Amino acid sequence: MSQKKQLQINPDQLKQLIEASLFVMGKSVSIKSLKETVLVNFNVSRAKIKLAIEELQQDYQGRGIELMSVAGGYRFQSIESLSPFLQPLWQEKAPKYSRATLETLAVIAYRQPVTRGDIEFVRGVAVSSHTIKSLADRQWIRMVGHKEVPGRPALYATTTEFLAYFGLDTIADLPPLTDTESLAALFSDVNSLEKPQEEIGPENTQNIEESTNE
Questions:
Q1: pLDDT tens digits for the chain (214 residues)?
Q2: Which string of b and e fits 5-27 if b means at least 16 CB within 10 Å?
Q3: In whole angstroms, how large is the CA radius of gyration of the chain?
């Protein structure tokens, strides 16, 4: 069976197509995904795609949006310094996450994969199933397996959506646990999420710490 002849594309056209694709998608897109979708019919190597992306990053230097390497791919986003001025575009002010929920997320991010029991050991308090569910619903964490101990508890890890939201390319980009300022900055924007503040679920009401009262 003869293979389909691949089309040629010049560097300028390649940049235009990549730029338009990332703009339309509005989320992190990998080079592999670009090759398998919009560039599937073109004779272009990964190296040429990477070069075109690097040139686009240079083109957007000093502008209101930038092309960032996030979650194993690339996406356009507004520059951080404009964030306070863009807030009025979102008319509804979303509720905040509790400190306890953020602590749970941080334990999962830094110790993954972890069980609910592991999280409780680190935090020193019980963790509500509501907390785990809210983070899973946000698609920041997911179950990745079971720990081979009695009861086979679920193991949780972060997702590419977690990396994308926090502007991280890989988990290795998390700031050191000792870097308190960087950690504070990492979680500073979580307050604007459309998720409930409650940490305490219907079970373990007497045992679970309500960190927002600290």
A1: 445 678 889 999 999 999 999 999 888 999 999 999 999 999 899 999 999 999 999 999 999 999 999 988 999 989 888 888 887 887 666 557 788 888 899 999 999 999 999 999 888 889 988 899 989 998 999 999 999 988 899 999 999 989 988 888 889 888 887 766 666 666 665 653 333 333 333 333 333 333 333 3
A2: eeeebeeeebbebbbebbeebee
A3: 21
Q: How many other C-beta atoms lie within 10 A of the C-beta of residue 120?
A: 17
Instruction: For residue 184, list its beta bridge partners.
Output: none
CB of 200 closer than 8 Å to CB of 210: yes
Judge if pTM exceeds 0.70: no
**Between the CA of residue 50 and those of 69, 132, 190, what are the distances in Å?**
11, 37, 31
- All domains of the chain, ordered by start, with CATH? 11-86 (1.10.10.10), 99-192 (1.10.10.10)
Using CA atoms, how far residue 92 sits from 26, 83, 135, in Å, is 21, 16, 21
Please name the residue that has the structure tokens 């293979």.
Answer: 3
